[in-house]
Amino acid sequence: MDAIYYKFLFENTNDGIYHIGTVWDTYEDFKLNFIYVCPSTEKVTKKDGLTPRFIADTYPLDYLIIANLSYDYLERVIGLIKNRQINTVIMPYFTPDQRKEIIYSYAKQEKFVSDDMQIFFVDPYQYLINYGVENVYSFLGNGPMYEEEDIWDGVHFDPIDVRIQSQITRLEGYELPVYKAGYIKAGYWLLYFGNYGDGLDSTIVMYHGSIGEDTEQLDSSLCVRNFSKLHQCYSDITSKEYTCEIKCNFMNDHDNLRRHNRDEVKKYINGTFLLGNMKVLGNVEKLYHRFAVIKEHVRVLAVPNSGALGYWDRRLLGFGMEHYKTYWVGPNNKLTQAEMIKDIHIASPHNRYMLLDEYFGVCMSGFLKYKNDYYSL
Fold first, then answer.
1. Mean of all residue pLDDT scores within the chain
2. How, if at all, do strands 30-39 and 16-25 pair?
3. What is the predicted pLDDT for the residue at 372?
4. What is the C-alpha separation between 281 and 95, in angstroms, rounded?
5. Phi, psi of 125, rounded to the nearest 5 degrees
6. Angle of helix 71-83 versus helix 115-122 axis, rounded to 10
7. CA 92, CA 80: separation in Å to the nearest integer?
8. Would you call 86 helix, strand, or coil by DSSP?
9. Helix, strand, coil percent content, the chain, rounded in steps of 5
10. Which pLDDT tens digit goes with each residue over 165-219?
11. CA–CA–CA angle 8, 28, 11 (5° rounding)
12. DSSP code of residue 304
């Protein structure tokens, strides 16, 4: 029953992206857990009485990626920080004045500002360290680019220029380390980051997917589906739930991506590309330059800022592998452009647009397994 299992969920929220990932390599007894959060730029009204899914999870997180600072989403993030063991937090760097601007704009609406919020915005780094976070990486700009020849596991971020670091030290009153976005290699999995936008518009783009797999030695299975309140879905993979993906095949309506099983396949297409709130319109070249190495590894793409006007660019349709199914995920709210959805469906019959709202989320799960293993799934 040994395999490399993975499960990635887009929570059923209509006001941004809440993405949960777990990779479990039973061969190496290695597990990777992360959450990526990015709110929409505008307030989206939620209906009363509906509770977000997966908030009861208590397992430790290796990485919490805060793609953009938003007061409303930060309330939930602080809940994670206070109630979960988190090893590493990754977020954009915002100056003290920019952090004040966020909290003042909220206070002007005559809304309650909790003590935790005030303390966080004064000094996010110290707040996180005080709650047991071991590593905090604040991004300003882009650094190392991933190359397929890189075989070394670990965190590959570069420190920012000494001159800029000195300016930040003066602003903060102490030496707060700030980094250029890079990548993390963890066994067969890659987390690859980009940092785009200025000031409060700064946002983190993230790709994750398997790398270095030998298709002659490894079999692959991949299942993508929507889920609703009618389905019991877990965000973690445990020894009791390792057959989750297989159960989906038998119990639910789904897309089981059989092309992965063909002999001529040279690589498995299971990557997820999260564009945060990047103003992609007119800036697609930046993504193609930095993420060229994973361009044809993208299976799921979360559209920028719900596909809002001024963010979507149809040239994003170049990501993914031609003639393979590609899934485009986005919250269903007042920001979402009908023109964007039309672009996606007209571009290829292999494209699917999957909505996130108060009722529906998206699950992508699968495994990589050595073909010569004695045990069978």
1. 87
2. antiparallel
3. 79
4. 26
5. -60, -55
6. 100
7. 18
8. strand
9. 25, 30, 40
10. 999 999 999 999 999 999 999 999 999 999 999 999 999 999 999 998 877 788 8
11. 10
12. G
Q: Cβ contacts of residue 148 below 8 Å, gap of 6+?
A: 211, 212, 293
Using CA atoms of 54, 59, 60, 64 in order, give the dihedral in degrees to the nearest 10.
Answer: -10
Cα–Cα nearest to 369, from 237, 215, 189, 234: 215
Helix (H) or strand (E) holding 345: helix 338-347
Res. 8 pLDDT band, cuts 50 70 90: very high
* Residues 206, 211, 214: CA angle, nearest 5 degrees: 160
Q: Which residues does residue 4 pair with via DSSP β-bridges, in sequence order?
A: 25, 368
Total number of residues shown for the chain:
377
Q: What is the Cα–Cα distance from 350 to 360, expressed in whole angstroms? A: 21
Question: What's the rounded Cα separation, in Å, for the pair 23 and 186?
Answer: 10
Task: Map tokens 């110290």 to a residue.
Answer: 126
Residue 297 phi/psi, 5-degree rounding, is -100, 0
Q: Specify whether the backbone of 110 is left (phi greater than 0), alpha (psi in -120 to 50) or beta.
A: left
Mean pLDDT is lowest, of 108-112, 132-136, 319-323, 326-330, for 108-112
Tokens coding 200: 């409060």
Contact (Cβ atoms closer than 8 angstroms) between residue 97 and residue 122:
no
What six digits make up the tokens of 68?
């953009």
Instruction: Tell me which amino acid residue 2 is.
Output: D
Strand partners, 66: 37
The amino acid occupying position 242 is: Y
pLDDT number for residue 58:
78
Rounded-to-integer distance, Cα 78 and Cα 118, Å = 12
- The rounded distance, in Å, linking the Cα atoms of 246 and 191 is 25
Instruction: Kindly report the pTM of this predicted structure.
Output: 0.93
- Count of C-beta atoms within a 10 Å radius of residue 247: 12
Tokens of 188: 């067969």
